[in-house]
């Protein structure tokens, strides 16, 4: 049990599966309790969390780590606030916050599926065309929700004069670009900029912030979306555990956390410089299937145009 995490607690959104579940598992093994906010738990999460039950009435003071699950739709600010209340009610302190919930621009939230209107009745989009103010779900989940949860965390820590650590889930998409998923790229570019912008909090307030930037990780973001099947060909997948290990480094390595972007590829990890950064290893980010999807998209736009 790592002494630096024993007895502490973390709040993780999107912790019901994938990368964030792997990180929750690692924290629990290190003695850190966890509050998970997600829409649902995968069978793997249910099995894991049964090993770390929290008993009513212990006030979170037990030396044994435990898990609290709070059903949360992260695009709802009231639900995010309720999640924060659940975490601070369950445990004496929240030391680590991971706004990890994300989507990979599925058809119902894709730039290429414009909101449904009278002139575009067949769209798969769930984004309302008459929303005022207008919004896109991919940006709501991947960028707006992490910013709001970061606000709640920083407010809590600064009011209590407490140190804390924010770990965001970025991507190599945060410094790359391609047409098939422009909202996803925009969300990760924005998230990286947000993390960079808050880097000065480390030395001024003891609040550390960083983001992991993995390449392609085999998660439900790919598996649950038939439109992404073409993109998976030839990808060098990164293991969940490798990303979780990098997230752990952002928590325990005090030299990091000043806006650190920590890249994780099949060929290794590196801290990405803020300026004049070398491109990521081309062999590790070669997504030939993604290129095929791009060509198919462009041909369709030539033939049919974008329906709005």
TrEMBL record:
Per the record, the domain of life is: Eukaryota
A single Gene Ontology CC term:
cytoplasm
Q: Name one Pfam family in it.
A: adh_short
Give GO MF terms, alphabetically: oxidoreductase activity, acting on the CH-OH group of donors, NAD or NADP as acceptor
Q: Which residue positions does the secretion signal occupy?
A: none
The record's InterPro entries line, in alphabetical order, gives: NAD(P)-bd_dom_sf (IPR036291), SDR_fam (IPR002347)
Q: Would the keyword Oxidoreductase turn up in this protein's UniProt record?
A: yes
Keyword list (alphabetical) reads: Oxidoreductase
* Oxidoreductase as UniProt keyword: yes
Which family does this protein fall into? Belongs to the short-chain dehydrogenases/reductases (SDR) family.
The protein's name is 15-hydroxyprostaglandin dehydrogenase [NAD(+)]
């Amino acid at each position: 049990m790592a002494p630096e995490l024993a007895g502490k607690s973390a709040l993780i959104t999107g912790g019901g599966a994938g990368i964030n579940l792997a990180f929750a598992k690692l924290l629990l093994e290190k003695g850190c309790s966890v509050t998970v906010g997600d829409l649902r738990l995968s069978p793997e999460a249910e099995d894991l969390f049964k090993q770390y039950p929290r008993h009513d009435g212990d006030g979170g003071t037990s030396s044994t780590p435990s898990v609290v699950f709070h059903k949360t739709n992260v695009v709802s600010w009231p639900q995010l606030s309720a999640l924060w209340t659940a975490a601070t009610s369950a445990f004496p302190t929240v030391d680590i916050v991971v706004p990890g919930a994300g989507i990979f621009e599925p058809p119902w939230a894709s730039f290429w599926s414009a909101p449904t209107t009278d002139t575009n009745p067949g769209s798969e989009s769930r984004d309302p065309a008459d929303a005022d103010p207008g919004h896109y779900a991919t940006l709501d989940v991947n960028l707006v929700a992490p910013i709001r949860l970061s606000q709640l965390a920083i407010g809590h820590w600064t009011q209590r004069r407490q140190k804390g650590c924010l770990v965001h889930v970025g991507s190599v998409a945060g410094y790359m670009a391609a047409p098939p998923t422009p909202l996803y790229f925009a969300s990760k570019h924005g998230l990286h900029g947000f993390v960079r912008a808050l880097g000065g909090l480390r030395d001024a307030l003891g609040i550390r912030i960083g983001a992991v930037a993995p390449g392609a990780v085999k998660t439900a973001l790919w598996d649950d979306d038939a439109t992404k099947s073409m993109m998976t060909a030839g990808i060098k997948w990164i293991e969940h555990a490798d990303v979780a290990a990098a997230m752990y480094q952002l928590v325990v390595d005090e030299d990091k956390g000043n806006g650190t972007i920590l890249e994780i590829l099949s060929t290794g990890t590196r801290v990405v410089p803020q300026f004049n950064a070398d491109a990521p290893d081309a062999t590790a980010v070669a997504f030939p299937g993604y290129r095929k999807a791009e060509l198919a998209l462009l041909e369709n736009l030539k033939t049919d145009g974008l329906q709005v």
